Amino acid sequence: MFRVSLAALIVVAATAAKADSFPPDARRLIDAGLIEQIDTWMDSEVVRLSVRSQNERYGKLTQAEIDALDEQWKSEREVADKPLIAATLSSPLSVYLTRMQGQSAGLFVEIFVMDDKGLNVGQSSITSDFWQGDEAKFQKTFPQGPEAIFIDEPEWDENLKIWRAQVNKTLAEADQNTSLGAVTVEVNLTELARRKLAVAQ
Q1: What percent of the chain has pLDDT over 70?
Q2: Which of 7, 45, 98, 137 has the maximum number of C-beta atoms within 10 A of its C-beta?
Q3: How far is CA 32 from the centre of its chain?
Q4: Is residue 15 pLDDT above 80, yes or no?
């Protein structure tokens, strides 16, 4: 799954910047090295403490209350007063994820961490919604166990003129045996292909 041939990289690099071309093969480009990089950054106390704290805080939420928080988030995106969004974006975890995205030098487009219900705990930018629990990024990771990884299909970003794909993983406790939450890292496949081709030449 994680091995990429030079020929495949050349094809990907040649087509990655064209919206009307075949999308790059995310599952070939996103290799073990990139997964290890994500794991290294997620293996942090600020990540685990933040998710643990929210798991405890929201532990008894009903689905109706989760839906209400999600609607509040969506409403706040359209107005100046954003208490829920502001609290999330100013958290130590969001600051950490923003720094992580910056250190990737354009490789990571967006990063967000979810709790055990799929609610955002921290993020590098404002997401469209607050609850991810009804989406594949959460359903194919956290409920599937501490080692679950789900790489979604590539999408063309018309604004940035890049192909991008989401790497979704379960966040595990330090013992790696207990699921804690989940993380989504949106990868710039166009930049990833460029880097791999540069190394291969």
Answers
A1: 90
A2: 137
A3: 16
A4: no
Using the 8-state DSSP alphabet, how is residue 141 labeled? T
Domain spans of the chain, in order of start: 45-189
Residues sharing a CB contact under 8 Å with residue 62, sequence separation 6 or more, in sequence order: none
Determine whether 119 is exposed, middle or buried from the number of CB atoms within 10 Å of its CB (0-12, 13-18, 19+): buried
**76 class by beta-carbon count within 10 Å (0-12 exposed, 13-18 middle, 19+ buried):** middle
Tell whether the model's pLDDT for residue 67 goes beyond 70: yes
Q: What residue type is 122 in one-letter code?
A: G
3-state DSSP helix/strand/coil % of the chain, to nearest 5: 45, 20, 35
Nearest to 77 by CA among 134, 137, 136, 123: 123
Give the architecture-level CATH label for domain 45-189: 2-Layer Sandwich (3.30)
pLDDT at residue 23 in the model: 86
Pairing status of strand 179-188 against strand 162-172: antiparallel
CB 137 within 8 A of CB 184: yes
Give the model confidence (pLDDT) of 133-147 as tens digits. Answer: 999 999 999 999 999
Q: Are 176 and 18 in contact (CB under 8 A)?
A: no
Share of the chain above pLDDT 90, in %: 83
